[in-house]
Input
Amino acid sequence: MEALWHKLYLTFVKDDHYRFFLSGLGTTLLLTFASFLLGTVLGIALCAALRAKRPAIRKVAGIIRTFFMELPTMVLLMILIYVIFGRSSLPVLCIVILGLTLKAATYLSEIFDSALDTIAEGEAEAARTLGMTRWQAFRYVVLPQTVQAALPLYQSQFVDTLEETSIVGYLAVVDLTRASEIVSSRTMDAFIGLFTIAIVYFLIGFAVKKLIKLLATPKKGGETA
Output
């Protein structure tokens, strides 16, 4: 037990090592939530383009989705940082968020597109015949079913985005994983740091998945006859 306390002291207390973990946690949360929320908006736009009436728009959107889906995240980030924005004064953190946003949007657009495919076209048309406007038919018929169909994969994509942030430490960004590596190099003991961040990653993913599910579940009290 004394040896364990000594390792905990070296990992978190000595030389204020806990500051690395707190700073890394803040960076990880920023990268994850910023890129996932922006990716959601961009994913909706890309999904709309994939379903556009003009074939040219659908084709271009399909090429964009396939390109970013097949391109490894690390390669994309390196292209953005060292090539496209190589001479730019834009902070690396912003460039990383842009790259992660593009990756998240690509997968989210496919999730939204697949969810829409599960809804029968006749349902929206039936709602229109009952006197609903196009917006009302989408709001009360199409959207709730789309959300429920997309929810499981949407939650999983958040976890995927969270996990992808762990590679940014190789690009001069001190996230949670990189913070653990820095501390481990000083204490010469990686176990405590890695065990800690593993728990933190799990808790973040678990909590957000539960929150998304809670927010997306319709309240029974709000249903109308």
Notes: The mean pLDDT is 90. Residues 18-50 form the longest helix (33 residues). The chain is about 80% helix and 0% strand. The chain has one domain: 17-216.
